[in-house]
Amino acid sequence: MSHTSTRGLPHHPGNTRQKRKKTATWKLMKSNWALYFFLLPTVVYFIIFNYIPMYGIQIAFKNFSASDGIWGSPWVGTYWIEQFISSPMFWNYFLNTLILSLYSLLAGFPAPIILALIINYIASPRFKRVAQTITYMPHFISVVVLVGMMSSFLSPSSGFVNTFLSMFGIEPIYFMGKSELFRHLYVWSGIWQNAGWDSIIYIAALTSVSPDLHEAAIIDGASKLQRIWNIDLPSILPITITLLILNCGGILGVGFEKAYLMQNYLNLNVSEVISTYTYKIGLQLSEFSYSTAIGLFNTLINFIVLVIVNTVARRTSEISLW
Amino acid sequence: MPMWKQKNKIQQNKKDIAFDIATHLLLFLVLIVIVYPLYFVLVASFSDPQYVNSGKMLFFPQGFTTMGYERVFSDERLLTSYMNTILYTLGGTGLGVFCSVLSGYALSRKDLPFRGVIMAMLIVTMYFSGGLIPTYLLVGNLHLLNTRAIIILLGSISVYNIILIRSFFTTMMPESLYEAAQLDGCGNTRFFFAIALPLSKAIVAVIALYIAVNSWNSYFNPMIYLTDVNKYPLPILLREILITAKPSDTNAIVDDPAAAAKAATLVEVVKYGIIVVTTLPILCVYPFLQKYFVKGVMIGSIKG
Asked: With an 8 Å Cβ cutoff, are B132 and A45 in contact?
């Protein structure tokens, strides 16, 4: 609108155009003042609870003491981050976090895809619906209840898993106390809980595949496996890659809750991850600066991995987040 | 039809039959693995803990009893936690839905100057945050430690939900609708409440459920910010009962072994009852709203 009306003016057309544009923006803002009002509570919320804490990250480079406050505490540079990286426990916690999340990714990422493919090829609509309802269900169970169920079911004295095992003459196993089993339990209980829910998106993508492709393939005599390989998988590839990138972004973001809840002194050597360590250092030992530095380190690694994976995906498949 | 082609077709059919059998079997197995633990909890909650613990109860209730539930419903701490959880869930959901729907709608409007800047400001928070300690310090400075308000506030508004609502409005609401309304002299506020909101009932339901499930199950924030037992929501109490050993029982062991054993079995029967009582509300609501949930995930996948 503004540029058609400024066309005839010979002097400083850019300048005038800018001015006109500014007044147009101003007009729009004025006529839409109510929308800014709509946004106000949300913006205030994020400024208070996300942006103001970001200001507090500086204590990762300071020696924080409550009496001096965030601003007044003396700078110590990268002392805390160096201390964390050079601490004897560093590699232990770092690898625990990395292994746990890589294992979760490798086992947990294909599971919903396989489930979606299976459900997609179930002929009976009723069985399909029942299967979906049931597989989504565990998603709604809280982590606390999930871990509670695990410790009951896997208990060596009273759990049903050991009852079943004893039918085959296997001695009771104290699953939750064996550190070599921690990762398997963590990952597979996660799959139990979330594979169904995560499959929704793939089922949706599969149902939107054009039926013409399948009909043509059937006429050509393609088997169902061949159709999966040549039609279904290529058509869900874009969403798969997008989700893969997103998942890789959280590679060091092993959630606090489940790891913490599954922890006991027997499995601590594999169950202590960066997020649980940050919590213990920060709130149990009140080492505020050290804890913040560890958290910052974690966020940075996550971000770097996200950028790398996104770049690789963009170069190889032209699918990326940005 | 040539011989080889026909043979080929029969072979394909055989392969497909094998495929169908395999997938049906596999799915059936998966369903059993998912359902059995849930079924076990339900049945165990009505059974005599003696049978449950000795492994005699595997498929059907043994020694039917409602002792667990009686104990659960007479436990004052549990009732307090239950009320707290309901309060936090209602509060968080109300606040979250209110703010997300309003801001999601505003951000969907293409004629809103600086909406890109505001959107970017929100998205940044999905990848960067202050982290645990800076947030904790802030909450302390605001004098919100150990208050119910902070539990309701934190986590109620999520950028993901805002993007979901924004995508809903940009894809489902034609711009001409607003332009027409504007010509008729309908302002933003009236348009939103009279036209946009009624059209978006489904997405509002989805958001409400997302937030409600989240706050019902929320464990981290209450653990960090609450110290007063009377303000604890269910998950904190559940952890004590289900996962960590109760100190009261260990004391009892020293005093009276028989009483301790009795207390321990009681804990066992309460365990399953408590899981049912705290999980059932959500598991009961969800099948009726399943189609909306699915819709929500799909709108989310359109990409923000």
From this structure: no
